[in-house]
Amino acid sequence: METRFTRGKSAILERPLSRPKTEVSVSAFALLFSEVVQYCQSRVYSVTELQARLSEMGQRVGGSLLDVLVLREKNGKRETKVLNILLFIKVSVWRALFGKEADKLEQANDDDKTYYIIEKEPLVNTYISVPKENSSLNCAAFTGGIIEAILTHSGFPAKVTVHWHKGTTLMIKFDEAVIARDKSLDLR
Amino acid sequence: MSRQSNRTTDSKKMNSELFTLTYGALVTQLCKDYENDEEVNKQLDKMGYNIGVRLIEDFLARSNIGRCQDFRETADVIAKVAFKMYLGITPSVTNWSPAGDEFSLILENNPLVDFVELPDNHSTLIYSNLLCGVLRGALEMVQMAVDVRFVQDTLRGDNVTEIRMKFIKRIEENLPAGDE
């Protein structure tokens, strides 16, 4: 990820990071997001590419959001355990973004690297109708990107993909090393 | 047909951060995809226009506001009702031209630019240019051709953020042949 430094003494650095007072209407977001999806669509050839692009944009959002949330919700303390970072996402991140907790967090039965966050009616999909010919398209790929960035920047490299399953499911697959580290932490 | 009066502002609200950051991600993407700021400004305006064309429907349905009598009333509705409803802010309306066909919106706390800084190599980017397109598109749908542009922007070092709106003409309704 590219890094950019703030110029000298910027007024932005003096601004408090407390919760924003402003609220915008859901319609404003829905219309903006719809333009985002259409724009991405105009530059790709397949559903996979489209989802990759949406995810990439989500990753920018996630990258900017992480530090703010850690500061606000966790007093600046970062999570080191897999379960805790997942709960942080399910509760704090979801509340900050969508005003509610995610519906469900589950671990795959057969694989200790894989977790699912399940959301029946994700906000980003509320106003989107998926055309039949691209029925695999899920614009929650954007949310997936946000989560992937938050995990990766917290030191839990993972791939997040999105699927239609019990509503929308974000599948989180951690890198081998993350799980190995987690287990070694447990042993101590 | 009676309308419910309590529908006025019951649109759902959300935290502005997701909105701000999503917009930021979009602008970043456009800056990557296009060669220069001019092109990005144009693209933002175009996307805003698409939004405006759809947003006006939502706005009219929610606000119960009928046709505006003059441009002054239009300005008031935009600043006090529309901006409040969608972005949670109320810009001030100033600098009327003597003819009453031009005014400025002064934006404080523009939610699109929360914690945004323009890098030096993007000094001609009009970051919030989407808004111009939205206003233009929405007004076009109510038969007003209006020129909308940023004349000052705090992101580019000005003291205030100012959108200038100039009324061009009423758009005649073109009824399809045989529809009268």
From TrEMBL, chain A:
TM region positions: none
Top-level lineage group: Eukaryota
Protein name as it appears in the record: Trafficking protein particle complex subunit 5
Pfam families listed in its UniProt record: TRAPP
UniProt entry keywords in alphabetical sequence: Endoplasmic reticulum, ER-Golgi transport, Golgi apparatus, Transport
One GO term describing the cellular component: TRAPPI protein complex
Function: May play a role in vesicular transport from endoplasmic reticulum to Golgi.
GO BP annotation list: endoplasmic reticulum to Golgi vesicle-mediated transport
Record note on quaternary structure: Part of the multisubunit TRAPP (transport protein particle) complex.
TrEMBL record, chain B:
Annotated localization: Endoplasmic reticulum; Golgi apparatus, cis-Golgi network
Name the record gives this protein: Trafficking protein particle complex subunit
One Pfam short name: TRAPP
Cited function: May play a role in vesicular transport from endoplasmic reticulum to Golgi.
GO cellular component: endoplasmic reticulum; Golgi apparatus; TRAPP complex
Chief location bin: endoplasmic reticulum
Family: Belongs to the TRAPP small subunits family. BET3 subfamily.
Subunit description: Homodimer.
Keywords: Endoplasmic reticulum, ER-Golgi transport, Golgi apparatus, Lipoprotein, Palmitate, Transport
SUPFAM superfamilies assigned: Ligand-binding domain in the NO signalling and Golgi transport (SSF111126)
Biological processes, Gene Ontology terms: Golgi vesicle transport
